[in-house]
Specification:
single chain; Porin; 16-stranded antiparallel beta barrel; mainly beta
Length: 310
């Protein structure tokens, strides 16, 4: 039924759009081989299809476009399904299932994230509904001021991660993000997200700050700090810091991150290193080492992956 509705919507929009129309098909396939380096773990090695994405973008006119992206490995088949209206060169409004404007790493496409997996704190905030995808309406404003690029994004969402059974509460979630950048040399972002708790009828808040800077053409540093309310009694938090060095078709990088399941207790530490080889724009080979330290216990694994883009 949902596919039928989306199909009719695209047909109707196509019918009244008078300007030149274009259609773009895109996708991603990412198989990997995971080796667990910790003793006495079953399975200690495994082949996986980590990600499969297939999407289509339809540009109906200079001011109207639609996008649908599917993920057959997810419980929610439809990853993205939205219509975007460019009201001017600076203002855009999008309606449908889309990414909430919270967390730089979460907003970064999987084809561009520095490691195969996102950091732990970002994943946990996604589970709590502070970031990730949801159904709603989003406003974006972009402006160049004093040689800086300024952007503001704000959205209202259902607050249930866009699950197929529809809205399950009487309140809405809100997300906002401000970002300032200067080309590829510097970027800083501030974001906040507010979600309703169905049990206590209270709004819980998450906040974050991130930045990236190029020390030179080949060296880039990225860091992000995030924290948010888990429930009435506890909050979670964490950060990651990453440095990357680019040499020809190779990228070398290390990342240190911490995750606090409860900010009043000790953190779990993550030590990661990577080697990327990208001989083509659409082909990327990745080797990731991941070490996890928790309560004096240390576990590690090795990920060997390849990503191919359509």
């Amino acid at each position: 039924m949902k596919r039928l509705i989306i199909g009719h919507l695209i047909f109707l929009l196509s019918a009244f759009a008078q300007e030149k129309q274009t259609t773009t098909v895109f996708g991603l396939l990412q198989p990997l081989y995971q080796v667990n380096l910790t003793d006495n773990v079953v399975p200690n090695n495994e082949f996986k299809i980590n990600r499969v994405r297939l999407g289509i973008e339809r540009k109906f006119s200079d001011w109207l476009r639609g996008e649908i992206e599917l993920d057959p490995l997810d419980e929610v088949l439809i990853k993205d399904a939205f219509i975007s209206f460019d009201l001017s060169s600076e203002i855009e409004i999008s309606v449908g299932r889309q990414k909430m404007p919270f967390s730089y790493e979460r907003l970064t496409s999987v084809k561009n994230i520095p490691f195969i997996e996102r950091s732990k704190i970002v994943k946990e905030l996604d589970k709590l509904g502070y970031c990730g995808r949801d159904v709603g309406v989003q406003f974006a404003f972009n402006k160049k001021m004093m040689d800086l690029d300024f952007s503001l994004m704000a959205g209202i969402f259902n607050g249930n991660s866009g699950l197929p059974d529809g809205d399950n509460n009487n309140s809405k979630s809100f997300s906002e993000r401000i970002e300032i950048s200067k080309g590829k040399f510097f970027r800083a972002g501030f974001n906040s997200s507010q979600r309703a708790d169905s049990i206590s009828a209270k709004y819980f808040v998450a906040n974050g700050f991130d930045f990236s800077i190029r020390l030179m053409k080949e060296v880039k540093i990225t860091s992000e700090v995030l924290f948010g309310k888990k429930n009435s009694q506890s909050s979670i938090g964490g950060f990651y810091s990453l440095i990357e060095y680019e040499f020809s078709d190779f990228t070398f990088g290390v990342r240190f991150s911490q995750y606090y399941k409860d900010i009043k207790k000790s953190a779990t530490n993550f030590y990661e290193a990577k080697i990327d080889y990208q001989p083509l724009k659409t082909l990327r080979f990745q080797v990731n080492f991941i070490g996890e330290e928790k309560n004096s216990n240390f576990e590690s694994s090795l990920l060997l992956g390849v990503s191919y883009e359509i």
